[in-house]
Amino acid sequence: MGGRVTRVFRNFNVENRARREISKEKPMPAPRHRTARLDTMADSPEIKEEVLKKDDRFLTLLKDVYVESRDPPVQVKDGGGEHLPSKQEEKRLTKLGHLEGLDVKKVPKGKISLVEALTLLNNHKLQPQIWTAEKIATEYSLELKEVNSLLEFFIPFTVLEFPKETKKAITSRKPKQLT
To answer: What family does this belong to (predicted)?
Structure first.
């Protein structure tokens, strides 16, 4: 559908636009700078004689030139597919609880694993007085502004279960008011 609409606009009044463009005055090219023409100079006998003349001094210098060329040693590339890191990163052991089988064992400093992120968000949610942003930053080797952003923008889910006898919504929690 969109192709048909664009084709209509593209082909609208195309003949008149083409005639208008063809009938425009052609711009005058900029004047060229006067230069000595090489082909007129090549016809002169003095230049032909100078070009064909052998200079003994240049010939002796040319005979002294010796160029030796060698190929660089061939480097064998390992096709293993693994790339070695260019610089060695500092790594730290992860702080895992009961989920240690699900996660990596070492993480670069300044980064956290997924399980650690969920753990620290849950700890902060349950005990915000103990797990402050400063403590989380020192515990996991992170920057404070990144931890503040993490705590502000990421919130772990809360599971609410309805009682079996009633299927009504829980009224104990007040809904958040948007400001």
So the answer is: Belongs to the NDUFAF4 family.
CA distance 120 to 139: 10
31-70 pLDDT, tens per residue? 887 765 555 666 778 888 888 888 888 888 888 888 888 8
Specify the residue for token string 């279960």. 161
Packed helices 114-126 and 133-140: angle between N→C axes, nearest 10 degrees: 150
Question: What is the separation, in whole angstroms, between the first and last Cα of the chain?
Answer: 42
**Sign of the C-alpha dihedral, residues 108, 111, 114, 118?**
positive
pTM of the model: 0.38
pLDDT, tens digit (0-9, with 9 covering 90-100), for 122-133: 889 989 999 999
Positive or negative torsion for Cα 141, 146, 147, 153:
negative
